[in-house]
Specification:
single chain; 385 residues; alpha/beta; Purple Acid Phosphatase, chain A, domain 2; 2 domains; six-stranded mixed beta sheet; 44% helix; elongated
């Protein structure tokens, strides 16, 4: 049975998406493409809607299209989302300026009469440049280093070298080649412990080359092991159980609302993602329950995909939390929103003895584009005293 609520919400989203694209397409025809002599409106709108709707088409037809065509349509649609976003921002600003000019007559009439198609070319070149830079930026992650101190003894351990990666989003767009690059970067850092803070896979885990991906994960080397938690996208795709099984077989232990004492020196706790409550209708364990049996005199490191409800780890005496999820906004200026939603949407935060690091993520969701932030591998040196 189809849920009427989801049908209604989906219909509203489709209308909004279609309205935005119609607005962009209309302005594109008026300011630029109507000046192309061999292009008529029917051909223009047919091509425009094929591109604009390609991402939605791919979302609803993964099993209907041949694999190569499905990946091609998904990629075109994903890039269009970035183009749509920046066309929408640019065109809206120009139309607001036009509205202001209607009242204050700032721009001379002769300039306005000769503005098209030069303005259309300028806007198209600007957006193309921004998206091209964002695509390049998304494929050039950096290593961000943090030196931390935890005021506890960790057995005989004086220092711990942790490498954390979040939000790889392996799937149709992010392939094994990108994972291999990440594995090589991590191994060059020679960590004691490797942690994946959720969204290792995108919703469509079945589209990844599982043999190659599994082999890449097995190449990770860390004396204290490789651990992961689930993110919201493993749940959204309905692949949480498959992801856990697959990662375990690839040598990555998934912590789902449980803790692990490591080397008698520190505790690692992995929380199930918040989205699991909404999708599976199973409430995750409270952090107070997870801390039962944990020797709090030892350092406690927590992995929780979403950096939300920080009052819990503060109250429970967690020393360090590692999170991802936010992508630091991914596409400028979305970080203006994520910074309001989360107390810390990227980087380092300290509240008393509690410390938090939120990663901008290694991969991308939707458009393989990043503007205003950079993908990263997080390299952490923790000193115990």
């Amino acid at each position: 049975m189809f849920n009427p609520f989801y049908i209604l919400v989906g219909g509203v989203i489709f209308l909004i998406y279609g309205g935005f694209n119609f607005y962009i397409g209309s302005r594109g025809w008026q300011s630029l493409f109507s000046y192309v002599p061999f292009l008529n409106p029917q051909v223009y709108w047919l091509l425009f809607w094929l591109i604009a709707l390609s991402y939605l088409i791919s979302r609803f037809s993964p099993k209907l299209l041949p694999a190569a065509l499905f990946e091609g349509v998904t990629l075109v649609g994903a890039y269009w989302l970035a183009f749509m976003w920046y066309f929408l921002l640019t065109i809206t600003m120009l139309d607001l300026l036009r509205l202001i000019d209607r009242f204050f007559h700032i721009v001379p009439v002769e300039v306005k009469q000769n503005l098209n198609p030069a303005l259309g070319l300028i806007v198209s070149a600007l957006v193309l440049g921004v998206v091209a830079y964002g695509a390049w930026n998304a494929r050039h992650p950096r290593v961000n280093h943090y030196d931390l101190s935890i005021s506890k003894q960790a057995g005989a351990l004086k220092q711990l070298h942790v490498v954390m990666v979040s939000d790889i989003h392996l799937g149709t767009i992010i392939h094994n080649a990108y994972l291999t690059k990440m594995v090589n970067t991590v191994n060059q850092l020679k960590p004691d412990l490797v942690l994946f803070a959720g969204d290792v896979f995108d919703e469509n885990i079945e589209s990844t080359n599982k043999e190659e991906v599994s082999g890449s994960f097995r190449k990770l080397s860390a004396p204290y092991g490789v651990y992961a938690v689930l993110g919201n996208h493993e749940y959204i795709g309905g692949n949480a159980e498959e992801a856990v099984k697959y990662l375990d077989e690839a040598g990555v232990r998934v912590l789902r609302d449980n803790s692990q004492e490591i080397a008698g020196s520190f505790y690692l706790i992995g929380r199930d993602d918040l989205s699991g409550e909404r999708i599976n209708k199973v409430k995750r364990k409270s952090l107070a329950v997870l801390m039962q049996g944990v020797d709090r005199s030892l350092p406690v490191i927590l992995m929780d995909h979403q950096p939300a409800h920080l009052e819990e780890p503060v109250e429970q005496g967690v020393d360090l939390q590692l999170s991802g999820h936010t992508h630091a906004g991914q596409l400028f200026p979305i970080r203006l929103i994520t910074s309001r939603i989360f107390e810390d949407d990227w980087g380092y935060l300290r509240q008393g003895n509690f410390q938090l690091i939120v990663s901008s993520g290694y991969g991308t969701w939707g458009p393989p584009v990043r503007v205003g932030n950079t993908p990263e591998v997080v390299d952490i040196t923790i000193s115990f005293n």
